[in-house]
Design brief:
By secondary structure, the protein is mostly helical. Helix content is 72%, strand content 0%. The chain has helices at residues 14-17, 31-35, 41-54, 56-75, 83-93, 99-113, 124-146, 153-159, 164-177, 179-193, 200-230, 238-248, 253-281, 286-313. The chain is globular. It is built from 14 helices and no strands.
């Protein structure tokens, strides 16, 4: 008897749709895609590091080119903080067993606040634009790496720039979505420090209002941040990308936001662990190491977010 053939399930996935060979097909989003549980932050982080390791050569070239351009145009070769002198200033303010630790943390805060500052007269908008260009180049490179396509550094900057205007459009929408969060923080700060909210109940009321405004921003951002990666696909507009992102995060907005919030927290922790001993022991090298770490974090953080986006569109 001939063997009975059973219908095979279509295994095509949105993950494949994201690849170059299938870029003419629409973004496929199924009910199973929406219900699949997301990996935890540990798994997302490990997979992101694997992406970076697979493309370490070209990714290093992309980010070093960006770092050199940023150094020339924005920071300036003579720019940056004098860590040794700043450390001495903090050392005079702290005393006791933990004075070195407090001084180091103070210097670290100064280094952190100096990100984006220009000593060459360049506006912060130029610095932001350069970061956007680097991110687009990295996203293009991640896509090629995961599809096994050969890539060159110059191709990442040439061919990766086609979604620049749509990408900026989504960024503009994200900036508008941050308004409730900004209002909530400002409202609570003014209420407490201007003594509008005096007793515990009044502070609680303002806190609830501020938290509600912040939650609204986080609700919007849970899909808009994913739209940043969808909009880099061919023939995609900001509105289409935002609409495509909404079903991806349906019933998983909290999970997405928690995985996004994890990223700056772990970056902050790792950078403190690495930079703090350098500030205390060898402050002359702290500025350079901080800049190199910042470049590494740009690559890893975007790989993490791109991996999160790929997990959201995966259809197993």
């Amino acid at each position: 008897m001939p063997k009975k053939q059973t219908p095979t399930k279509n295994k095509s996935s949105a993950k494949q749709v994201d690849g170059l060979k299938s870029n003419s097909r629409p973004l496929k989003i199924t009910q199973k895609t929406r219900q699949r549980k997301l990996p935890d932050v540990w798994r997302l982080s490990i997979d992101a590091l694997r992406i970076v390791w697979r493309g370490k050569g070209v990714l290093s070239g992309i980010i070093l080119f960006f770092g050199l351009a940023y150094l020339i145009i924005v920071t300036g070769f003579s720019g940056g903080s004098n860590v040794s002198s700043i450390k001495q200033q903090f050392a005079g303010a702290f005393h006791g067993s933990f004075s070195q630790l407090y001084s180091g943390l103070g210097v670290y805060a100064v280094l952190l606040s100096s990100i984006g500052n220009s000593s060459s007269g360049t506006s912060i908008s130029v610095a932001g634009f350069m970061v956007v260009v680097a991110i687009l180049a990295l996203i293009w490179a991640y896509r090629q790496i995961l599809n096994g396509a050969p890539i060159r550094i110059r191709d990442a900057y040439y061919r990766g720039m086609y979604p620049l205007i749509p990408f900026l459009g989504v960024l503009l929408i994200i900036s508008l979505e941050l308004i409730p969060l900004t209002l909530g923080i400002s409202l609570y700060t003014i209420a407490v420090y201007d003594h509008i909210a005096v007793n515990l109940f009044e502070k609680y009321v303002f806190g609830v209002i501020s938290l509600g405004l912040a939650s609204l921003s986080f609700y919007w951002l849970s899909s808009s941040l994913i739209a940043l990666y969808i909009v880099t696909l061919p023939d995609m507009t900001p509105i289409k990308a935002l609409k495509a992102a909404k079903p991806l995060v349906k019933a998983r907005r909290l999970a997405v936001i928690l995985r996004v919030l994890y990223l700056p927290l772990i970056i902050l922790l790792v950078s403190i662990i690495i930079i703090l001993p350098v500030i205390i022991v060898f402050p002359v090298a702290a500025q350079a190491i901080f800049m190199l770490l910042s470049l590494v974090f740009i690559v890893v953080a975007n790989a993490y977010m791109y991996n999160l986006y790929r997990e959201l569109i995966e259809d197993e």
